[in-house]
């Protein structure tokens, strides 16, 4: 049984159809890469999977863990274990990084999270990501550099332990060290959580130390090609032209 199954998904953003019938499957404990030219709907697909209200599903279905989640609200999907790391993480003044993650964890589990245990795990995980401890008590993403925002996303992923993590260009704009750190975080997630990943990226640097199971190529609101890891290299050599409709 697949973890994620998307069937003929059509999605509108502000009454304009952006996804024109996407089909995509992600198995358990698998690493998938989603590539495609700018503006083809990769981020839109990510938002539609997580249930962002601005992305209206007009037809088709999304199944997660065997359950039809097409109509399920965003917070319910998060509870089921779907996580999206944003291409452009939002700044949230007045909510610390620590409080934000603890709240998300409590929302997800429906239980109170004991502060002592939480802080311990948070500090350990931040250390692994080479994040200074002081960031935990800073307002979420406010004044964070691009790299720090992306690290904060990876930190959330490691703390929330989702079944499916969608990473939307988490590696874009990062320096070599930050890419390595993010990559380490992703590996840690694979080892610890045995979750699945859908990695939206234009770069191969983040994939270097990961085993990629499946590569999907999107063009103009559709998945136009599925392949193995070698498809990533093929695209890097020849571009997207051969896949264009
Ligand atoms: P990609 O991530 O592949 O670059 P996007 O999913 O961001 O592509 O965008 C696909 C198309 O949908 C683009 O034409 C974009 O302008 C449009 N779009 C995406 N999100 C919105 C939005 N919130 N409001 C208006 N148009 C949007
Ligand atoms: Mg995008
Ligand atoms: Mg085209």
Provide the descriptors you would attach to this structure in a database record.
single chain; 245 residues; alpha/beta; Rossmann fold; binds adenosine-5'-diphosphate; binds magnesium ion
What can you tell me about this protein's structure?
The two termini are 31 Å apart. With 245 residues, this protein is α/β, with parallel strands linked by helices. A six-stranded mixed β-sheet has the order 6-9-10-3-11-12, with helices on both faces. It contains seven helices and twelve strands. It has a single domain (4-243), classed as 3-Layer(aba) Sandwich (Rossmann fold), CATH 3.40.50. It has helices at residues 42-50, 74-80, 97-109, 115-128, 146-160, 176-193, 230-238, and strands at residues 4-13, 16-26, 31-35, 55-64, 67-68, 82-85, 92-96, 139-140, 164-168, 196-200, 214-219, 222-227. The site of one magnesium ion (MG) has 4 residues, from helix 1. Adenosine-5'-diphosphate (ADP) is lined by residues 13-14, 18, 36, 38-44, 54.
Brief summary of the model shown:
It is built from seven helices and twelve strands. It is α/β, with parallel strands linked by helices and 245 residues long.
Lay out the secondary structure.
Elements: E1 4-13, E2 16-26, E3 31-35, H1 42-50, E4 55-64, E5 67-68, H2 74-80, E6 82-85, E7 92-96, H3 97-109, H4 115-128, E8 139-140, H5 146-160, E9 164-168, H6 176-193, E10 196-200, E11 214-219, E12 222-227, H7 230-238
Parallel strand pairs: 3-10, 3-11, 6-9, 9-10
Antiparallel strand pairs: 1-2, 1-4, 4-5, 7-8, 11-12
Helix pairs in contact: 3-5, 5-6
Bound molecules: adenosine-5'-diphosphate (ADP) and magnesium ion (2 copies).
One magnesium ion binds at residues 219-220, 244-245.
């Amino acid at each position: 049984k697949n973890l994620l199954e998307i069937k003929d998904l059509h999605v509108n953003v502000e009454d304009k159809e952006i996804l024109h019938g996407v089909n995509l499957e992600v198995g358990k404990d698998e690493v998938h890469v989603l590539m495609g030219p700018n503006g083809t709907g990769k981020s839109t697909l990510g938002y539609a999977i997580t249930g962002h209200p601005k992305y209206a599903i007009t037809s088709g279905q999304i199944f997660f863990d065997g359950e039809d989640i097409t109509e399920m609200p965003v917070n319910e999907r998060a509870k089921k274990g779907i996580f999206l790391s944003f291409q452009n993480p939002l700044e949230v003044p007045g909510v610390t990084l620590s409080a934000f993650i603890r709240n998300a964890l409590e929302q997800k589990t429906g239980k109170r999270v004991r502060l002592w245990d939480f802080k311990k795990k948070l500090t350990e995980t931040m250390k692994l990501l080479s994040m200074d401890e002081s960031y935990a008590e800073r307002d979420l993403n406010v004044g964070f550099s691009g790299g720090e925002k992306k690290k904060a996303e990876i930190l959330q992923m490691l703390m929330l332990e989702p079944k499916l993590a969608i990473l939307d260009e988490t590696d874009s704009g990062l320096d070599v060290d930050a890419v390595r750190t993010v990559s380490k975080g992703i590996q840690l997630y694979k080892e610890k959580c045995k979750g699945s990943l859908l990695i939206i990226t234009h770069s191969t640097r983040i994939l270097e130390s990961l085993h990629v199971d499946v590569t999907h190529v999107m063009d103009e609101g559709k998945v136009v090609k599925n392949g193995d890891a070698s498809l990533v290299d093929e695209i890097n050599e020849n571009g997207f032209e051969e896949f264009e409709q």
